[in-house]
Specification:
The chain is built from 5 helices and 3 strands; from the N terminus they run ββαβαααα. By secondary structure, it is of the alpha+beta class. The longest helix has 27 residues. The N and C termini lie far apart (43 Å).
């Protein structure tokens, strides 16, 4: 009988996968419903990769819950979070930031006005250029 790790499953091929649902309350903030990552093909690889990824997932969920509990009047920029790893996450962060601005009272017209202040300077490096925010950008091109 092997070691049982929480959220780890064995696939049909014998590899180990971390699979965990995101709490419903923070799905909109995180931008996905499940964390899923291959930890390795052997038990030894899975045991080595598990702690690092589990801590990362726990941190993302805790940060999202903290953001959910934050006062609604404050619009936090994506730069205040940890540095984003992918363009998909940056796109999701930009959409959340836009929603926060709208919630804080910025009008749609104010969002599209030329010369508007935009996100803080530190967020400029996290949010992709407007050309990357076009619809269909994240679809795979086969």
């Amino acid at each position: 009988m092997g070691l049982v790790l929480k959220y780890v499953e064995t696939t049909k091929s014998g590899s180990f996968v971390y699979r965990r649902r995101v709490p419903k309350a923070v799905v909109g903030i995180i931008g996905k419903a499940m964390f899923k990552k291959k930890l390795g093909d052997t038990e030894r690889e899975a045991l080595a990769a598990y702690p690092r990824y589990h801590v990362q997932v726990e941190g993302e969920i805790a940060a999202a819950q903290k953001r959910l509990a934050a006062p609604a009047g404050r619009a936090s920029s994506p730069a205040s979070q940890t540095r984003l790893a992918t363009e998909r996450e940056a796109y999701a962060a930009a959409l959340r930031y836009r929603a926060d601005l709208i919630e804080a009272g910025t009008t749609e017209e104010g969002l599209h006005r030329k010369g508007s202040a935009g996100p803080p300077a530190s967020a400029q490096e996290v949010i992709p250029q407007p050309s990357l925010l076009r619809p269909g950008f994240l679809r795979r091109q086969w």
